Amino acid sequence: MQKKDIYAVVDLETTKTSQDDGHIIQIAIAFVQNKTIINQFSTMINPGTNIPRHITQLTGITNGMVKHAPYFEEVAQTIHAMLQGTIFVAHNVNFDLPFLNIEFSRLGITPLDSDAIDTVPLSQLLWPTAPGYRLVDIAKYLGILHEHPHQADSDAATTAELFISILNRAQSLPMVTLQSLTGLPLVLPRQSKQVLVDALRLNREKPQPLAHNLQVIDGLAIRRFSAPAPLVDDQNVTYPAKPSQKKQLLGDTLTYRDEQAKLMNFVDHHYDQADNDLSQKEPGTDALVIEAPTGMGKTLGYTLPYAYLAQKNRKQVVVSVPTITLQNQVVQVINQQLNAILPFEVRAVSLKGQTHYLNLQSFKRSLNVDEGSAALQFIKAQILVWLTETLTGDFDELNLINPQTEFMNKLSQPANNPTGSAFYGHEFSERQHIIAQESQFLVVNHAYLASYAHKLGPKNDAAYLVIDEPQHLPDAVVQQSRRQLNFNRWFDDVNEAQFLFDRSANVNIQTILTRIPGGRKLKNRFLESIHQLQAEIPQLETKLYRRFLLNQKEVLGSGVHDFPVDLHELAQFWVEQAGRVQKIHQGIADLQTCLNDFLDEFSQLKHVFSVDERQTIADFRRCLNLIANSEHSLTVFQQDLVEFPEASVFWLTQNLDQEGQHLKLSGGLLHTVDYFKTRVYPHFMPVTLIGATLFTSNKSNYLYDRLNIDRSTAEVHTFNDVFDYANQSEFILVNDAVNPTDSGYVDYLSRTIADILEHVHENTLILFNSLETIQQVYQQLQKMNVANKNQLTILAQGITGSRGRILKRMQNEQGIITLGANSFWEGVDLPAEQLRLVIITRLPFDQPNSIPKKAEEAFLRAQGRQPFYQSTLPKAVLRLRQGVGRLIRTPTDYGAVVMLDVRMLEKPYGKTLRNMLPKTMPQVERASQAVGPELAQFFKQHDEKQHHLN
After folding, report:
1. In whole angstroms, what is the distance from residue 875 CA to residue 848 CA?
2. Distance (Å, rounded) from C-alpha 498 to C-alpha 510?
3. Bridge-partner residues for 817, per DSSP?
4. Per-residue model confidence as pLDDT tens digits over 611-639
5. Which of 357, 397, 431, 712 has its CA 20 to 30 A from that of 380?
6. How many beta carbons lie within 10 A of that of residue 80, not counting itself?
């Protein structure tokens, strides 16, 4: 590809994505030469058929717009002539080029055989941290104007600008990076890789100096890192306690808020007590507990006084939050907002577990290994580019497509001999800890706090501890401990490894080994280990069954059945089976050693293996990794029995079907009694607990019990709601709803939701307690043709896409109806028109018959407590408050909540649930058929009010 080459950047809009029965309705071409758009062409096309409604919604192209447009056969020769001799470029070239060629073929015109380039994978490779790679997303990220998304003329012009950016970006990469990229066995669409080859050629013809912010170490170009200067040790700082002092500090940058100012003072007063040495207090005592509602600015509210406390008392502050997203937000508030106003420098660093950070030595080694997977090679290419940008090496910066956990974990593994590595002193995990030593704030997630509390802050001077949204911390600890060991899947993985090893139909590992030095010995070692596991794993399953299930008196039919396992008996079982378990451990260790030896030899070979052979190796590696993962669960179970004998729960799941029985062992922590008091709090000053939804009632001890807090010594503050719920919202309780246990429940939900959607076309989140119910309701709504009738788009968790993709569509589109469970109850921030209506199908009680739930209830009864009122109901209250909290996110927001569970009105505990809703939120009762008209009136009034204000 030379300067004289002309690139034809093409975009099609079509009636269908299928090339067999779809037709073009618009085509646009932007011609690029020497990184400049030199000409453009665009025309509507009459497809000879009606344009589907969803295509019109997407593109804005109507039947009327194409009615008088030319048919494709009228312009085909002209388009074909324009494209001859050019290099075809498109955003997803394997759609546009084949589609166009099929249209040409229908008319007897020779299909184009041009070189072709795809801007999608090149964008993914060259901007690996971009939030998305749809044309509209990558254009926004790069600052490219895109006036009319999904119209071919605008899309083609935007793609042309993107292509020019791709050429510039590729040619700006260091030569050493380009050499590594072109040396990888990358599989890119068509001739897309030529962009990288040309960039390397141009760099060699006219070498560019290495950018001053980069350095090359052992063949890798990485960002330079300098240890931060020590923080200025100035203890003569005075906290701005008075309103006038805060207003002066906040200046024009930030808004002064009375309630936020009170929060700041509560923090400062609690910890700035000269006559009361808090560092000597018993763990769990003298905590500061604050419920601060959404919209109050709680992050700035606690970080500002803590910045003064840290500076004055030479202490660090550890902030623990539930999610990585919140981690990034807190770091941003401190490093940007606080730093802009404080009279002293403040620094925050995000700390995560080792598996979050790239290890340079492991990555360098991986470049010399061909795992046989095109997807893994592409990830390596993205990382090579990312290394020229990142200062943290945190994998969470990357936007990778379906990365394999085992592969990413391997890239984070420390070197066998770290001090002997060329990257010693440059590894990213080391960088983070260097930065942490010179930062006042260490921001972690809850799982990290639970695992590494003893390593946070200086040993000789206890740090402050803030737990943001602490109601999630006990669940994080318990969930982190829960594991499953599926014996059937474990055995199937071993058999799959055997199948890949010697299958006769396709390429197999045994054949590949014949072409590798030492392959005969490796073959024997592999087979010996596989055969050992095939013998021992079923025996272990059989022994487990005979010990715990053989004498069950209950006659079981087909299906899934759970059985609790006595902890003392399980511990004794592992003692008795120690020899067999050791054979399994040894067999898996031998497999991993053989695999490493195999890959070392495979990578040294000069000749090239076929794509099928490399894919076979990748599949084999994946199988061995799955086998090792199951073994790890077994190891953790045994450790839990030793470390947490009284706080663990285990159960066996027996699945009876036509093929026989299959066992699954599950287990982990049951509760967090004394966990924080013994493992977390002793390493810190008395804790600050702060969140938007902490309490389940005015008298409940639920929060204090779960977090091991001494209520009698705690200082507790609750703030009133910030938002004007009386005028911004409405909570509708349906008083004739079908009970969730009735057989007609799913039919009722489907009919009621369909009726509501006839009246309301706002973005809606419908919350469920199970994915099974979501699937049933979604199928019925599809049969009722609800989406097409009302010009809506219905999305369902686990059916139409991931949580992230669904939320992105709610952020960018209107008329989106989302059916969600579990993670949709919390952490969803969709202000204004992104979310106007929340429908709650069922009160969020935990599954009542699960083994962990029964074990927890038995534990509470043994302590003389009532499980429903001291566990089940408080959990549901918190979940309900979080679900309702998805609605109003800003002072100008408005919206409604509909409760389709009649138990909130009929059961005694319903009053507790209603009392914990926002105090000023109007609560009204309506019959099912009256909900739609009620909502229509509500939104009409608020839309008119909003229009008047604007």
Report:
1. 13
2. 10
3. 764, 794
4. 677 768 878 888 898 899 899 988 888 88
5. 431
6. 18
